[in-house]
Amino acid sequence: EEQLVESGGGLVQPGGSLRLSCSASGFTFSSSAVHWVRQAPGKGLKYVSAINNNGVNTHYAESVKGRFTISRDNSKNTVWLQMSSLRDEDTAMYYCVKEVYYYDNSGLSGQWYFDLWGRGTPVTVSS
Amino acid sequence: QSVLTQPPSVSGAPGQRVTISCTGSSSNIGAGYHVHWYQQVPGAPPKLLIYGNTNRPSGVPDRFSGSKSGTSASLAITGLQAEDEAEYYCQSYDNSLSGSPNWVFGGGTKLTVL
Lengths: 127, 114
Fold this sequence. Notes:
The complex is a heterodimer of chains A (127) and B (114). Chain A is an all-beta fold. Chain A has strands at residues 3-7, 10-12, 18-25, 34-39, 45-51, 58-60, 68-73, 78-83, 92-103, 110-117, 121-125.
């Protein structure tokens, strides 16, 4: 069974740091890009960061650029999200998500969707 | 506010048909990027419901269908059931930020089964 399991969330003071982990199983991890998506309490889903299958390419939402770092180790089937300079507005449930990338019928346009979600790990930034 | 716009809520009686709209712009849905839909029941993570505008993953009932036209997309649910009560999100890709990939979601629509 394909599975993603997040860990590492918790309560941290503003300005503090936290490292989230995402452990994968049941699929060929080294073939898949992975994203972090967060959901603030009572709010919608927001893309946070992404890393391609071999870890060479990383991307960040503008709101976390310069503060968060995504990385992976395919030998451990694990992705991490290092979060620093945390702010109140970073409070959210953080989901690890597996990406599916494909081309549309024209063969010219890449498309992305998320076919597997972890259960999430909660992060609370508060003094 | 979200890049993709959804109605905050919709409702319907059991057995009825409801639709949820997702409105974007020329930098996302209108640029040819596909729309995907997720269902989230309270206390659980989102689950893929529709991918590539119209396709259902294995296990998703054919009561759920998706469509896309121009800068908008829609999710239709027929034969509404109590278990369909959930939050629904659309998702696409937006190319308006130069050099920065940007995966975008709608703000979510709460479906209430009356």
